[in-house]
Design goal:
The chain is mostly helical and 89 residues long.
């Protein structure tokens, strides 16, 4: 039974990682400001990111926050995100 729970947790974590959409602006800004580690495939737990992830995060935080202004993909059927991204480019 415990194995099934671990497998379910791993599958849910992978699903969240593969979902490119966001549902709110607060979620986009939160994603832009946080440094997240990878999910261990065996245990399903989050692994601490390497130092290079921290360096790259702080080098690109301006662009992350700038593009977090683009409307989320759940708004206007994704059309707002497409239009906003084109305007940013």
């Amino acid at each position: 039974m415990q194995t099934i729970s671990k497998l379910q947790a791993i599958m849910e974590a992978r699903k969240r990682m593969m979902d490119p959409g966001t549902s709110s602006w607060s979620e986009q800004f939160q994603d832009a400001m946080t440094i997240s580690g990878e999910i261990d495939e065996v245990t399903g737990e989050e692994v601490r990111p390497p130092m290079s992830a921290y360096i790259l995060h702080f080098m690109s935080i301006f662009w992350k926050v700038l593009f977090a202004v683009v409307p989320p993909t759940s708004y206007y059927g994704g059309g707002g995100a497409v239009l906003g991204a084109r305007m940013m480019i």
